[in-house]
Amino acid sequence: MRRPSLPKLRTGAAVAALSCFTIVTAFAQVDSTYSEEDEEDYSLYDDLEYVDEGTKRFANAKIKGLSPAQFISVGYDFQGPHQLTAAAFGDGLYQEETADINAAHGLRVGANIPVYSKNSLIVQVGGQFWDVNYDIDREAGGDNPLVNALQNNGLRTVGLNSTIYKPLNEYSFILVQLQADMNGDWAIPDFQGLQYTRYSGAALWGRRPKDNLQWGVGVARTYRAGELNYVPIVMYNWTSLKSKWGCEVLFPARGHMRYTFNPRNMLLMGFALEGGSYRIGNQGNALADPYDELEIRRGELRFRANYQRQLIGFFWMSLEAGYRVNYSFNVDSVPDGQDFSRYFILDEPLTMENALTNPFYVNFSINFVSP
Amino acid sequence: MSRFLTLLFVCSLALTGFAQEDADRLTGVWEPSHGKAKIKIDKIGEKYYGKIVWLKQPIDPETNEPKVDKNNPDEKMRSNPLRGYRILKDFEYTDKDVWTEGTIYDPENGNTYSCTIKMTDENTLDIRGYIGVSTFGRTDIWKRLKMPSKK
Predict the structure, then answer these.
(1) Which helix (H) or strand (E) is A23 found in, with range?
(2) Which residues contact A240 (CB under 8 A, 6 or more apart)?
(3) ipTM given for this complex
(4) Which of A32, A122, A263 sits opposite B110 (nearest CB)?
(5) Neighbour count for residue A187 (Cβ, 10 Å)
(6) How many CB atoms lie under 10 A from the CB of residue B75?
């Protein structure tokens, strides 16, 4: 019998070693999503008892198919050309003026951080900064203080908010939202006094009877229509069984139909009511007493289409376009920030009853989301 | 001196054994708080993995077929059955009843999250899935189920 030569032996040993290494490596890497040896009898797991006490079940804060919640959002909002007719006021002291607004645009930044997040309680704390700059063409000699404030200062919002979600059991929950906003024509770092902070909030009781349905009713203290109001609210979130269609409604704040191309790509169509009470800071003492404590009651309805898609990982983009319909751009006198509500029926006269025409608008944002 | 070294060696072996026992307490069958699935955690090599072994609704109402991973971002994976799917991967025991370095997959939306597991008592796990940093996450409580006996 011929003995193999030494080089052949070496090659054979090397191949054997390499094979062993490959096999060992393959066993060591458990990257497979499945257990390859999977011939498990899954019927064994049908009726298992808890070792200790069982799970206390709580209604999940979400339903399947909802558009992703935003942890952090950085965006830009742009309203196209429209016209403002600022009313005369002050018994002839300040004259009416019609101004062409070429654009109203600005940065929108928001954050919503879960500070406590378990299935039995979720507490989120957030903040926001919105900026609106006005590019205005004015009539010669126009000197209405409202137009002056918008042109020279723009409007700004900085706010803090908190959302508390407390499931009561497997199907019921309570949702509470609190918000404090400082709105006005202030500029950084010259903030306005804390007495002009506007507080809003909502409390809602709801049910989540199925994985694809969530509804609730409650009340809100809100400035979304411009001035202070107390209104009933209704939540209704639903997703079809095939997860293609759905709706996301928190009336009267917003309501959308949703079409989901896939879980990373969706289109929402509907409306949002957006607004607040913005103090005019009387910079340069342009306003005479008793007209030096004014607030713009800004409320607007935005009929919109919003396309959201995943960019990479948990970063999504949102592109929104729509038509902004003015609900209120009137002005009230609010001495020392002591606000009041008309409760829809109180006939408190307005200081300025302004008219604002309606432009198209776009909004683009990059968001860090929780899908 | 040599007796001391032997003692040290024996002690270190014992400690390693205890640590191993501690780590292996994670293995078993667990139920997430929603009760829609049961997850079996096994040790493979030095790491821990958890696969779906039971689904409350195993049939997809849309197709009337067993549920598959239809939301997976990887198109090739979308026909894979959910039962048997490893949703927990690559967990390593650190200490103090905590397993880290792993991920958890959510078949409802096809996302994979970073994850830490903390055993709050022998039969309860705090499973925290998060994005990037632990702040951006949510903790779910899982309960241990009795291991099935072979039929």
Answers:
(1) helix A6-28
(2) A65, A212, A246
(3) 0.81
(4) A263
(5) 13
(6) 7
The residue among B69, B134, B139 whose CA lies nearest residue B105 is B69
Whole-number Å distance between alpha carbons of B53 and A36 = 14
Mutant choice from B65, B71, B91, B150 vs A, greatest count of A C-beta within 10 A: B71
Query: Which amino acid belongs to residue B18?
Result: F
In terms of Cβ atoms closer than 10 Å to its own Cβ (0-12, 13-18, 19+), residue A247 is middle
Render the burial of A95-116: b for 16+ CB within 10 Å, e for the rest. Answer: eebebebebbbbebbbbbebee
Q: Which residues, other chains included, contact A290 with Cβ-Cβ below 8 Å and sequence gap of 6+?
A: A333, A335
pLDDT (average), residues B47-54 = 96
pLDDT digits (tens, 9 = 90+) for B100-146: 999 999 998 899 999 999 999 999 999 999 998 989 999 999 999 99
Q: What pLDDT is stored for residue A28 in this prediction? A: 41
Count of CB atoms situated within 10 Å of the CB of A162: 16
pLDDT at A26 over 50: no
Confidence grade of residue A53 (pLDDT, cut at 50, 70, 90): confident
* Interface-testing mutation among A31, A32, A42, with chain B (most B C-beta atoms within 10 A): A42
Token pair recorded at residue B146: 């009795």
